[in-house]
Amino acid sequence: QITERIIVLFVVINSQEEVQGKYVVCILFFLWNLLDLVRYTYNMLARMGIYYLPLTWLNFSLCIPLYPLSVLAKAFTICVSLPYFESFGTYSIELPLPFAFSIYFPYVLKTYLLVLFVGMCFIIQNYFSERKAHLGTGNIKNKRS
């Protein structure tokens, strides 16, 4: 997640001034901070051996709807920045003649979008399994037996 955020923050948002003022960037930062506030508070208290049930539930339940929303905000941020990368040619590279190879950065971003959504599926599946392991299934019959 750190690498993902570094790519979006420094490569996509920071390199294009036109993208920095968009509302989706504010929404993206809000979602990141909300997720981190709950996750780091839970992890800090868990390290000290303090388990507060509402915070535990919030940690393992809030990430399930908010993580896909943050991925959608990242994807929308990338889609908003694509025209600027295409027009300015930022980070697009043409290698000299012996290699005769060029890297068109908007294609790299479009490929990253695919990887982002595939990775989201695996992470959401992991969140569901962690939630089940820490909170159980919620079925009273299973808890009694």
Automatic annotation (TrEMBL):
Its main location: endoplasmic reticulum. It is an enzyme of class 4 (lyase). GO terms for cellular component: endoplasmic reticulum membrane. Pathway: Lipid metabolism; fatty acid biosynthesis. GO terms for molecular function: very-long-chain (3R)-3-hydroxyacyl-CoA dehydratase activity. It is a multi-pass membrane protein. One of its GO terms (biological process) is sphingolipid biosynthetic process. Catalyzes the third of the four reactions of the long-chain fatty acids elongation cycle. This endoplasmic reticulum-bound enzymatic process, allows the addition of two carbons to the chain of long- and very long-chain fatty acids/VLCFAs per cycle. This enzyme catalyzes the dehydration of the 3-hydroxyacyl-CoA intermediate into trans-2,3-enoyl-CoA, within each cycle of fatty acid elongation. Thereby, it participates to the production of VLCFAs of different chain lengths that are involved in multiple biological processes as precursors of membrane lipids and lipid mediators. This is Very-long-chain (3R)-3-hydroxyacyl-CoA dehydratase.
